[in-house]
Q: What sequence folds into this?
C-alpha cells in the first residue's frame, strides 16, 4: 500500500502497510537515520518531525501521517553543509556511537523553533525522553546552547523546519555519525 506525504521537503510515496509503524516504514524506504532503539516509545531514537512536532516515529502508524510533512535527520543538512545544530554537536563532541543523535537533534530543532533561547533546564527537559547510553547529556546540552546562539543569526534555518534546500548527497544517510545503520 502506498501513502502520499512530504518527506524532507519532497512529495513522496511511502511504500508500506498503512498499519506499519512509521519508524520501520521510513527505514525500509531508505531513511535509515531514523533509529529503532527500544521496544517502542521509550528511548527517543526514532524521533522525527511530524508537522513540526518532534515525535517518536515508532509510536505512529503510516496511516496517521497520510498527507503530512515529515522531517528526518537526512532532511536537515548535508555531509558537506551540516545544519547548525548538527555542526554544534560535532564541535562539542556530543556524539559517541551516534545512535541517539538523530533523535536528539530532531528534538533540538523543535525546541529551538519554540524557544530560541532556552535555559539549560529547558534543554534538559526537552531531552528528558531521549536516552543516551554513551556520552551522557552534558555535551549535547552544551551543543544545543551553542546552536541556539548560532541560530540567532539565521533563525529561518529553524523556522522552515530545518530542511536543507539543496541536498547534493548521493544517499539519504545524512552525516556519518548521526545516521549509521
Ligand atoms: S525506537 Fe522509538 S522511542 Fe525507541
Ligand atoms: S552517543 Fe551512543 S547512545 Fe548516545
A:
Amino acid at each position: 500500500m502506498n501513502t502520499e506525504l512530504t518527506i524532507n521537503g519532497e512529495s513522496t510515496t511511502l511504500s508500506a502497510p498503512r498499519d506499519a509503524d512509521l519508524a520501520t516504514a521510513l527505514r525500509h524506504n531508505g531513511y535509515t537515520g531514523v533509529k529503532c532503539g527500544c521496544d517502542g516509545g521509550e528511548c527517543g531514537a526514532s524521533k522525527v518531525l511530524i508537522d513540526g512536532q518532534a515525535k517518536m516515529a515508532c509510536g505512529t502508524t503510516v496511516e496517521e501521517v497520510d498527507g503530512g510533512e515529515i522531517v528526518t535527520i537526512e532532511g536537515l543538512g548535508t555531509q558537506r553543509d551540516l545544519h547548525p545544530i548538527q555542526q554544534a554537536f560535532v564541535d562539542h563532541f556530543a556524539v559517541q556511537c551516534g545512535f541517539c543523535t538523530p533523535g536528539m537533534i530532531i528534538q533540538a530543532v523543535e525546541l529551538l523553533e519554540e524557544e530560541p533561547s532556552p535555559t539549560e533546564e529547558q534543554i534538559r527537559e526537552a531531552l528528558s525522553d531521549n536516552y543516551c547510553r554513551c556520552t551522557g547529556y552534558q555535551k549535547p546540552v552544551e551543543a544545543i546552547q551553542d546552536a541556539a546562539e548560532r541560530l540567532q543569526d539565521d533563525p529561518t534555518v529553524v523556522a522552515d523546519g530545518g530542511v536543507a534546500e539543496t541536498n547534493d548527497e548521493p544517499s539519504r544517510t545524512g552525516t556519518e555519525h548521526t545516521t549509521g545503520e
The longest strand covers residues 2-7. Strands lie at 2-7, 10-15, 47-50, 53-56, 69-71.
